[in-house]
Amino acid sequence: MRWAVFFFLATVVATCNADCHIFQEGQIYLLRPRFGAAGHRLEGLDCLSWRLAVETNNLQSWGTVPMSCENYIGHYMLGKQYRHDCELVADAAIKYAKGLNLSGDGKDIWIFDIDETTLSNMPYYAQSDVLFGALPYNDTKFNEWVADGKAPAVPGALRLYETLLSLGFKIVFLSGTKEQFREVRTANLKAVGYHTWEKLILKGDADKGLTALAYKSKRRTELVNAGYRILGNSGDQWSDLLGDNIGNRTFKIPDPMYYIG
Amino acid sequence: MRWAVFFFLATVVATCNADCHIFQEGQIYLLRPRFGAAGHRLEGLDCLSWRLAVETNNLQSWGTVPMSCENYIGHYMLGKQYRHDCELVADAAIKYAKGLNLSGDGKDIWIFDIDETTLSNMPYYAQSDVLFGALPYNDTKFNEWVADGKAPAVPGALRLYETLLSLGFKIVFLSGTKEQFREVRTANLKAVGYHTWEKLILKGDADKGLTALAYKSKRRTELVNAGYRILGNSGDQWSDLLGDNIGNRTFKIPDPMYYIG
Fold it and tell me: Span of the secretion signal (chains A, B) (predicted)?
């Protein structure tokens, strides 16, 4: 009951500040409460909570970054936290990959999505008329950016890629990018350091009308039917990591800028 | 190439501080770099990255919270952010639930895990000999806490629960708790406000030896075979939300204190 009271106080009392120690030991104290004196929730979206809900797939089919979070997402993407979050995903994937025994028959593969997984569109999204996804998606403008072929690598991705190659993995890129961009994407991947791969799967006419989840499931199933073993699967969207034949382990790269279902 | 240089600078240059503006427009600037002058990564685990990797299932089968993150996790759990993260999950689930058309035949269910999903063990985990999961799990001690039946509700959970009942959902609690605790858990649930449910499924002798993922998949499959439609599924562990018959939508409640596979 004491703790029920704690939760109550923690949410209702509006007079506590950072000096209000609940526990002296371990320096645990009550931070600024988010609830008003009458128990009503304070106005305003907590952008940290919004980002966590996006990364855990609790929020789905959202269209744009909430305008009130544009500044927060911009700082997150350009500051150290996004880079460090990406590096830790690479660390976890490398630790997992090094613990595996590969067959050596060339059928052990790691699937990488491209956008926000191996190539970063952050230079595009940072523009003042894109606002890190807080303004509606513009297909024409984004395709012009892709056609430029100037995307840098996502932090940590090249380190994982090189480690996987050295361990004997074959790399498969599986992207929602359309076939018409094959040449420029190939050049972009090579320019930043992705120098070799088993397959580069892009979206063709036969995939038209499929959701991203259905398209990726279909192509992964084709790989499995061809005898490949999907040991790892890296993507920034949950539609990369759910569905059929998702692989033995999936790795979610942060991306709070857009949602693809 | 300009952006490759940006990533390079952002990771290597060690002289930049919060006044170092990359973009004047939109107040986007480079935060404190995480890499030393020679390109080596700075020592120390970034606890925010660690928590994100846990919540997105990138880190699996971990035993304890890293000791260097104990203080951070304690502040997170007891401060406003955990509560607010939980409230936003409830908001998202309520928004989804209100958009559904229920059949009215009493077969539309929402599955809730118990620990860290509907009942909070934070009073236990905050103890100085538990340290928010930074010390190894002690089965005897934890069972004593469960037997006390004093767990408060997880923030946001009662609000979601009441909304679901008012919409016509039947509630199913599906927990890894053992059958021997049925009476005390029932009393605990009722004491904090969970006053009614369709089923309270606990782990029996027939479930011995199953992983959490296998046990929960098996029990959900039984529900589906009995004609229930799982429209929502809330849990703090990915083993609640992956496997067979996971439901139409899953909702991941934050829990950086322990891992159950």
Answer: 1-18
